[in-house]
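Exercise: predict the structure of this protein bound to pyridoxal-5'-phosphate.
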Amino acid sequence: MKHFDSKKFRQHFPLVCGNPRLNTQVKGLSPLVYLDNGATTQKPACVIACYQYFYQNINANVHRASHSLSTKATIAFEQTRDTVRAFINAKSNKEIVWTKGTTESINLIASSLGKKILNVGDEIILAVSEHHANIVPWQLIAEQTRAVIKVLSLDATGKADLTEFDKLLNNKTKIVCCAHISNVLGKINPISEIIQKTKSVGAITIIDGAQSIAHFSVDVQTLDCDFYVFSAHKMYGPTGVGVLYGKEALLDVMPPYQAGGEMIKTVSLKEQTTFNSLPFKFEAGTPNIAGVIAFAEAVNFINQYNTIEITEYEQQLTQYCYQALSKIARVKFIVEKMPDIPVIAFTVKGHHNHDIATSLDSYGVAVRSGHHCAMPLMEYLNISGCLRVSMAPYNTFVEIDYFIKCLMKIIQQENDSSIEVVSNNVSIENGLTSTEIINQFSNIKSWDSRHREIMLLGKQLERLDKNLRNEQSLIIGCESLAWVIATKNAQGVFYFQSDSDAKIIRGLLVIVLAAFNGKTALQIKSFDINTYFESLGLMQHLSPSRGNGVLAIVDKIKKITRV
Ligand code: PLP
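Solution:
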């Protein structure tokens, strides 16, 4: 077993470690500081190389051909199944089903098992902190079977509340779903207790291990859960590969999820089709062969290291980051006290989380902002969203220092400039035109400067009266709250007033309104907004959610001015 040395470990990850091609300056400005590992981890060189090796040397379909190349591919594919079985200490390879990821694993269980065992009035318990992937499939199946979802609240430390669980659990409970660790809270849920208590009423446990699997070893036999699901891409493996561990006895009685090639034993147009044995019954069609084989590289990579040493390093990083953040007066942690894994969620008083995240991005720091696919949790916490820093063992203390320095600079800059906001207001008729915006942007080359310009533009936007920020003016599809209202003069010319709780969106609103203000409905309809955005070099820099937000603004304007 290799001794864990963070510097040496980092060297395995080309995207973060100094490979001249990949250690380019993000958006031409600064080195990448990747603190979004909860979303997906970076990949070690061995995983990346495995793809090339596979396609150059053993590419063939698995299980079905009688030629040697296919045999080679099948052996490597099935060896990964055994590697993963050993990794989580499952009893048998029959209990390891390949899926696209955690999401598909849960959908498979909900669809197959849910339909089989749920009846009217049966109950499914899930924690309020679950990722949407562990909520929505259950909502769909509950609707079809008329089962009922019961929501488990959290205790003061941010973990699933065992006292509340006792109150919810009864003989109508058929399924209990709980994340091993929430992707926002970073706290280890008491899943052993939950699993044992669930057994006492004969119900089934599904543990979402998406966030835990990269941080400590999991033994499914010791846990004694019925299902444990996770994604390869969150543990240095490829995207598009997921694991569904299920107890053989349960998988055996579950009907297939998808149908097609490979999942059958016999197909007849005269008699009933019979299904393949486990795990193939659940693996219809050609799987992600290269991905699965490369996943073995990721598991073997992790297996080389002493996980206790890695955990220790992760805890040191977490503590360092947590303490540095706690010294910033405006930072408010989502859960008090240190998280159990390197996932720290927080808000910054007086600043929208998207504004902080986009500003950090302009310094080359990648963090996540928003609802983190946990909208019920956001509602429970009474926040619209938050920032999340999630670290991996290749992150360094120097990177944390840089992140904290950037964050403090952003907060300071925003505070200094917020004094100017009121005096900068410009009435709607005197707002900038699209030509003026294009001219203003034409000399700005870097995204960092463009970003600053958008933030500055946001200050020109007259704030919308609180009473006008309502359901009617709300822009649906924008991740931040944003509103727009239109007034039409006697000549049929439209003027717009708009606002958002995020500064970046206010800046983007100025840009969009510059295109539409002072125009008739027909002029608005025929305005080529895509060419306009292209000339500003906007869309390629905005994240998809922010880009969709801009398009939602355009849609709303087109809808309210439709002739
Ligand atoms: N569950 C949790 C706790 C997660 O954090 C995630 C992804 O972030 C998922 C489920 C969904 O994983 P995937 O998108 O890989 O299917």
